[in-house]
Every structure is written in structure tokens, then in C-alpha cells.
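for the writeup, i need someone to sanity check this before i put it in the appendix. the sequnce is what the collaborator sent (i think, or maybe the updated version? ugh). structure was predicted straight from it, no edits. if anything looks off just tell me and ill rerun, i have time this weekend
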Amino acid sequence: MVTEPDTGPDAGKALARRNRKFAGACVGLFVTMVGASYAAVPLYNLFCSVTGFGGTTQVAEEASELVIDRKITVRFDGNVNHALPWKFRPEHRSVTLKMGETAQLAYLATNTGGNATVGTSTFNVSPPTAGIYFNKLDCFCFTEQVLESGETVEMPVVFFVDPEMDKDPELKSVKEITLSYTFFPVEQPERPVAATAGTAGTETNL
């Protein structure tokens, strides 16, 4: 025996309720996915900063208390996105130091464009697995840098390589670490360019 579907008023109300529940579930799923996508960026950055994943360096509040005899050469690399009219390079290409020893090096940035521009940098180290042992005490990373037309500034980096790296079997044979920065233009600066111009660093001549 075949039962005919109920087409009365109650059936219509039931169908409407099911449709509303389904629509609500879809909206909830959409909101959850959007929220997860926004949360993914800070969570990923936190993960990288803690683990050194992808060559992300660490931030230290004080110098290492331990210095060991093993030496490591740190090479420096500077790059600029094509949309930013800057020249950017390290003062020195490399430095060799003992693990745990604090070193300071400066990068030089020059605005070759006709107007004041704002840039910000990303960074990483290679090999990527060394990121967790590379500690910065002072850096211009992720800070908006404002340069007037023709202005050159010095951007210091203070760092040390954690002696714990010597205990890492994967890095026992590593003799060099490369620290690389890339500057990108800031389309919407946190503060107007006129209010921040001249605060990027110490002016110098290339």
C-alpha cells in the first residue's frame, strides 16, 4: 500500500521549519569557516614563533648567559618588492661568531622614489630548522618604516644563536645560517606619512 504524502497545513509548516533549520545550519557553518580563516593567521604566526617553523626567528628579551666554542657564520640578505622604490642591503654580508655570543649588524635602506613611502619587512632564516635557535634582541621587523624621497636610514639588528642548537642532531653539520629580509610597500600606513616621516632610523649616506 502506497501512502500519499501529506499536503495539509501542518505538512507545510513542518517543511518550513526544516528549511529554516537547514538555512540556520548553513549560516552557522559559514560564520564558523570565516572565523576560522581569520583566526588561522594569528594562530599560524604563533605556531611559527614558538616552533621556528618555516625559518621564523625567535624574540629574546636578554642576551644568552652561555657562550660555547662552536662557531656559526650568519649571512645577511636584503630584498625589496618591485612595488616599493627602495634600495635595501646589509652593511656586511656575513659575520662569524660563537653560539650564544651577541652580535649587531645594520641594514641600509634608501628611498629612490620621488615621494615619501612606507615599507614593512618580512623575514626568515635558512635552513628553516635553525629558526628556533636564532634569537633577536632588537629588530625593525614588521615595523612600518617611513622614508622621505632620497633618504637613507640605518636599521640595526641585534641577535644571537642559541647554544642549544649544538645539541640538535639535525643541525650538527650546519656551519652557516642566512638571515633574509624582504621589504614590501604599506598601502595604508597606521599613521599618516607626514606625521611619521624621519622616524624610521638614523640617516646616513651610502
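The radius of gyration is 26 Å. The first strand starts at residue 58 and ends at 59.
thx in advance!!
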